Records
---
Amino acid sequence: MMALSTAAPAVGAAFLASIVEVVEAFTIVLAVATLRGWRPAAVGAAGGLAVLAGIVLLLGPVLNRIPITSLQLAIGILLLLFGMGWLRKASLRAGGVIPLHDENAIFAAEAAALVEQASRQRRSLSWAAGITALKAVLLEGLEVVFIVIAVGAGRGLLVPASLGALAACVLVLAIGVVVHRPLSRVPENNLKFGVGVMLSAFGVFWTGEGLGIAWPGQDLALLLFAALFLGAGLIGASLARKLRVEFA
Amino acid sequence: MTMLKELAAELIGMFIGEKRLTISILAIVAAVGSLVDFTGLDPLLGGAALLLGCLILLIDSVCRSARAGAS
């Protein structure tokens, strides 16, 4: 029986991170569909998903052969790099140092780039549209795959974490089908802040376990780590806001 | 080929957002690992150093970028 204190952060991190990435991929696929119809968009997106599935199928058996402590250490370090990178950027966005993501602007830029690319490369617009959709799904999906593997592989939580990611995909697609425009009202930076906090907490936890550290309270230590990273991120955002004014 | 390059750039970019932060995180992990393994440091103290070090690095990296006004 898996502990809720272990499963909940893993599923939550996979779900929230997937929402962020799926929203970004959806914006580009929608731009493709609006410009060239749903067929190239759907074919490109399906192609991207197929490549991602291939990567997961290749990686799965390899991960099972790696000793658990080495796996925890490697994944922990990667999670620290990835999670703290997200948290740093989210803090800078919250502090007004770098601009927030604007899905409407990304939608317009992607549509313009697609037309320009098709004319420059003298390819049919359908071909360029399909490739653009494929790339969007593949590139954004890679991060989802990494997060699912990273938060799930250390404790046999790959299936719950995958279900968390799948739930996010279904949710975004369902909302996207209904509203049929870029999902610009998703509080993306808040989500990224939350995901950065959780991934950084997982990163310290796995890295420590990989180094042979037995954390007091075991999985419950994750909650303490998350609270501390949240505090550090908020302090960082607050200091960034002050420094931005000071140095402006 | 272009797509493979973009894929590689995406993969690298996932883990190396800011070079100084990346190197510092790796240095802390290496230092804690060495201290625990080779000097017999209490693993819990090593864990506390890892956690505290990462928290300080995060705040420092955000402040430095804010001062520079960079991303």
---
Amino acid sequence: MIFSYYPGCTLKNKAQDLDRYARLSAEALGFTLEELDEWQCCGGAYSMAKDEIASKLSSVRALNSAKAQGRDLVTLCSACHNVLKQANADMAGDAEFSLHANNYMQLDEPYHGETKVLHYLEVLRDVVGFDALKAAVKNPLTGKKVASYYGCLLLRPGKVMQMDNPENPQIMEDFIRALGATPVLYPYRNECCGGYIAMEDPALAQKKSTAVMESAADMQADCMVTACPLCLYNLQKNAVTNSQVPVLYFTELLAEALGVKG
Amino acid sequence: MQRIGVFVCWCGSNIAGTVDVAAVAEALSHEPGVVYSTNYQYMCSEAGQNIIKDAIKEQQLTGVVICSCSPRMHEATFRKTAAAAGLNPYMVEIANIREQCSWIHKDMPTATEKAIILGRAAIAKVQLNAPLIAGESPVTKRALVIGGGIAGIQTALDIAEAGFEVDIVEKQPTIGGKMTQLDKTFPTLDCAACILTPKMVDCAQNENINIFAYSEVQEVKGFVGNFTAKIKKKARFVDPNKCTGCGECTEKCPMKKIPNEFNLGMDNRRAIYIPFAQAVPKIATIDPDHCNMLKNGKCGLCAKVCGAGAIDYKQKDEIVERQYGAIVVATGYNPIKLDKFDEFGYSLSPDVVTSLEFERLTNAAGPTSGTLLRPSDGKHPHTLVFVQCVGSRDTSGCGKPYCSKICCMYTAKHAMLVREKYPDTEVYVFYIDVRTPGKNFDEFYRRAVEEYGVHYIKGMVGKVAPRADGKLMVQASDLISNEQLHIEADMVVLAAAIEPDKTARSLGTMLTASMDTNDFFTEAHPKLRPVESPTAGIFLSGVCQGPKDIPETVSQASAAAAKVIGLLAKNKLTGNPCVATSDEMMCNGCSSCEKVCPYGAITYQDKEFRMPDRTVAIRRVASVNEAVCQGCGACTVACPSGAMDLKGFSNSQIMAEVDAICKM
């Protein structure tokens, strides 16, 4: 099975591991991520500005390319996932935004949110299935205590992301179980790490990321996994803690369990 | 041609503020058949009614049109007025120019024009009205109370006290409801069991009351004064006439690990159980989902130890059919599930509990025998945080939009009792608003703050984060000092919103009693008929109608009982003459009407008819039982040949109204 794939800017430089392991694992699981031609930055850095149409246009362009290919669009980065799904929901449900965007885009056929956007984790859960994933695992991570870190963007707003319950998510825990490891439940797994305000208010970002790291360490996690490059960076660089819990991309753990890490 | 009088009401400024009432009266005076037309400030007042009566007599009116509020409000009033002046009450028609006109329009010319059109339609209808005479039906002098909580108990006791028979149907093995689980009751702090259990015993001993515990209402048919209900008595697998409630079986049963519903799963019961010591009826019940004997035929220990020989593994559900004159709904409430409020950590830590669980943890008959201990480690908690409005007044869609009304008071009670019994504790209460109207309620709350030193903080809790060492990190905002607070708590108590019992919705359908979007039963009038359902003969008691505390529930329960007694005291009820009637000459015997009739009021019979060619033919035709027909009109729509018609709402009358509205 082939999916259109939107990697996003960060996966091309700082977060190359997130991308590389995802592609290797996909092949091992029998599906292919085919990168969209000439994709552009999703506009993630500006996605908070409500009246900004231009910043979302590149997302609409990516969504429309996937539509032209007749495939679902898969993405990995929490921020890209958030922006793509929000832009798609606006194109489908916000008539004024959709009209403006289509006027800018001047497409042959207007785009109205037809493409289905999937996070890589959703592909694992809903297309591959966690049972099939479990069966494909070659090196079960038995005994490893893994803390999932959802952050703020992956699941919220819940009505648009339609991925999991933002206050008590299960998808990453189920993923960790499928790999043979033991999920560690800790209360800060779905709190913001402060990454978005790291430039403006470094002290607050430090406080927030420290709280997340200490909460996971307190519950005896061996490592933490995330889907968000910004969270990973912020937790690694800004948290001030004595605990030595490494933070990894979830795809690295996946590739390791599937025996394709190399 | 009728002689019609038109009476336009101002309803103070309710109508006159938007509708030019004088212009309406003037315009309608020119309609065919209208011989008198006037307007008055309050047509429903005594003076207004006298205007109508005088006009009927002086003008020899044969029909009356009142342009006023909804017929649901005052149709009965004006029909009585007409009858008092010697006119058949069904010669009165109401044009609703308030709810359907003045209240929904802002512009006077538009509203005035619409009021004239509505009046014209009513005049066109009354032209075709014929005097109707209501039939009578007998009243079964027995009431059914659905739900055996404090609401149902109080209603049943009051009805029984007046000398009428009452059946209480309760789905649990015992009556008593939620109040049996409470520890103390605000604002006087008397023990719930001490004031409730005597009433439960009164119910059991009152010869006018039959308790159908562990039973459900399966079907209700009929109408006011003449209901028939099928009650399913679920099999207890214990003979109620033999069981003495000694409890021997409940100690010997080997299935020990079944979550005990009475203590909200915080301890265990056996597969054969009596919910609590003061249960009424005090009869053991076998839980078929957990009993080994019932599941695989192995065990039988309870039968061996039962000295009375009451155990009957072959007992079956039993259906009982009973007749009633009135039905009282008292189905109560449950706290909402907290799965959409995971920020409070309810699923993550056993030390985050609901307020009802907290009641059990402080109750002498609860799992800790009344000593407040943390569920996780059985240690004494030192810091407690109470969170109010968990799911109440919620606009996010996760909870309920309404105020659950009881939480402010019971939280003040909990906080006060904890501080009194354990002075070494710190107690915090987070609130949006403290709402304590009610006799001696605000004084009670102030005592919690001023005398017991409970820390009341305006603000909501955003996160409860359990730590590995068992502490609960509570993160909250203090809106008054504009600070973020971090409290290391030992226990967190969530005041979960309350919602109507899940059975209410299906019961509402069964009784054709209307409900609001939150599944609370709707009252016939929110202010003036608060204990009656709009469906005749159905009455409302307790939280099934809206959130209420115990004093208010008991008041409403007695009010509902008074209404039931008023109904059962009558020997006959005047029916509604607006019933269906079939024109036998036009009926083709197709049975369409019989199939759609929800009341079973239509039967078919073979009748002899003289045909045009002077022969006699036998034809199958519909006939309506007027005592059973409720006048819903379903048959008149279903009838393909136009033989069915509804008296007072005939097809020709409705077409005349439509014509009048369409006429420019």
